[in-house]
Prior knowledge:
Blueprint: H1 3-18, E1 24-25, E2 30-31, H2 36-43, H3 53-62, H4 66-72, E3 75-86, E4 96-109, E5 114-123, E6 129-135
Antiparallel strand pairs: 1-2, 3-4, 4-5, 5-6
Amino acid sequence: MGEIKYIELLNVRREEYKNYIPPYCSVIRDYIFFNSEGFNHLRFRTDGSPRKESEQIYKLRLLSLVIPAIKMATTVEKYERRLAPIGRKKKNGLRVMKEIEYWAILAVVGRQRVKIKVILRRIGTGKIHFWSVMKLGQNQKHLS
């Protein structure tokens, strides 16, 4: 995909993402929010390094299936709770540690009946928000 096509896809998806209305996820029993952290995670890894353009395109193309998947999910494939550093380092070189929860939910969606995994995340007592998306059947079994 050419640079211009990639930028067009990125801009279109970013505008769509900004207008998402939080859908209710019956398997989690809560509304799922879409914040800038989730969108940025489609473009950058947790350590802040950029994902390959091809990986960004892959995730951006799957983004249109996320809301239907959240609404139709019937399975929580995995749930994790862990203590992890959040945000930037303080002046003393330390980072704040917070409890983070992750859910991996599964759904079959779209005209082509694609099985996808949507990763949801909550930091501390905050709202549950979208974190990532991937198509299943590609040996991806981790929370990414």
